[in-house]
Write a structure and sequence with these properties.
- By secondary structure, the chain is α+β, with helices and mostly antiparallel strands.
- The chain is built from 6 helices and 13 strands.
- Strands 9-8-7-10 form a 4-stranded mixed sheet. Strands 1-4-11 form a 3-stranded antiparallel sheet, with helices on one face.
- It is globular, with a radius of gyration of 17 Å.
- The termini are far apart.
- This is SUMF1/EgtB/PvdO family nonheme iron enzyme.
- It comes from Microbacterium helvum.
- InterPro entries: CTDL_fold (IPR016187), Sulfatase_Mod_Factor_Kinase (IPR051043), SUMF_dom (IPR005532), SUMF_sf (IPR042095).
C-alpha cells in the first residue's frame, strides 16, 4: 500500500466548545501522529484491490464505519495492533493500540489550529479549497499551503471524520466530521465548526485522515471518554428553542 505520511504533533492544550450546553473546556493532549494528507483514493483503492480514477484526490463517499475499517486494514498491512474491534456495528477503541485510527475531536482541532487562535490558520484563499474556488469535486491533496504542523487541507477540500459522537442526546450514534469542504463558504470552513452524520452515511465531500498513538488507559484518551459519552447522552438543563431530545 502507498505509504501514509504522518506528522508528529506535540502535546498541548486545546479548548473545545459544546454549543448546546454552552460550555467550553480545556483538553490536555499527549503527543500523537496525524496524517499529513487526507487518505487518498489511491490508498483506499489499494487496500480494496481496485484502481483509483483520481489517485491524489481525497477518498470521499466513505462512511465512518468504512473509515475505521480502513484504519484496521492499514494497521494489519503494516503489522501494527489494530485499534478497533467490532461487535456488529458497535465499535470499541482500544486506546493502548499502536495502529491507525481516527483522531479524536480534540486531536483534530489541536492539530488543525497549529497554535493559531482564530478561525483559520492562514488566509483562507491560500490554505483551503472552498466554494469561492468553484470546484465541483475535491482537489488533489497538497495543493494549498500547509499549517505550521505541516498538515495540508485540514480546512476545506473535504470534511474529515473524527472518532467522537456529535451529540448523543439528540443525534444518538452520529459521528463528528470537521474542517469544511470544497462546496462550503468561509463560515463553515473554520477550525471550530462541528458537523456530523450517522456512521453508515457517506457524502461526496466527506473523507478522513488517520492518526496514530497509543495511551496507557482504557475507555478514555485525548479528550474522549466512554463515560463522558454516556453522560452527554442524558440531556439536562434548559434546552435551546426547537430542540428535542431523543425518545
Amino acid at each position: 500500500m502507498t505509504d501514509i505520511d504522518l506528522a508528529r504533533i506535540a502535546g498541548g492544550t486545546v479548548t473545545l466548545h459544546d454549543a448546546r450546553r454552552k460550555v467550553r473546556w480545556d483538553v490536555e493532549l499527549e503527543p500523537y501522529e496525524l496524517g499529513v494528507y487526507a487518505v487518498t483514493e489511491e490508498q483506499l483503492a489499494e487496500l480494496l484491490g481496485e484502481s483509483a480514477r483520481h489517485p491524489r484526490r481525497p477518498a470521499v463517499d466513505v462512511s465512518w464505519l468504512r473509515a475505521v475499517r480502513f484504519c484496521n486494514a492499514a494497521s494489519e498491512w503494516e503489522g501494527l495492533d489494530p485499534a478497533y474491534t467490532f461487535e456488529g456495528e458497535d465499535v470499541t477503541w482500544h486506546v493502548d493500540a499502536d495502529g491507525y485510527r481516527l483522531p479524536t475531536e480534540a486531536e483534530w482541532e489541536h492539530a488543525c489550529r497549529a497554535g493559531s487562535t482564530g478561525p483559520h490558520y492562514g488566509p483562507l484563499a491560500e490554505v483551503a479549497w472552498t466554494s469561492a474556488d468553484g470546484l465541483t469535486a475535491p482537489a488533489e491533496v497538497g495543493g494549498r499551503l500547509p499549517n505550521l504542523n505541516g498538515l495540508f487541507d485540514t480546512l476545506g477540500n473535504v470534511w474529515e471524520w473524527c472518532w467522537d459522537l456529535l451529540d448523543p442526546a439528540r443525534y444518538a450514534d452520529y459521528r463528528v466530521f470537521r474542517g469544511g469542504g470544497f462546496a462550503d463558504d468561509a463560515w463553515s470552513v473554520r477550525a471550530s465548526t462541528r458537523r456530523g452524520g450517522p456512521p453508515r452515511s457517506h457524502h461526496d465531500d466527506v473523507g478522513f485522515r488517520v492518526a496514530r498513538g497509543g495511551f496507557d488507559a482504557e475507555g478514555a484518551a485525548q479528550g474522549w471518554s466512554a463515560r463522558a459519552d454516556a453522560e452527554r447522552a442524558d440531556p439536562d438543563g434548559p434546552l435551546p428553542l426547537g430542540w428535542t431530545p431523543l425518545r
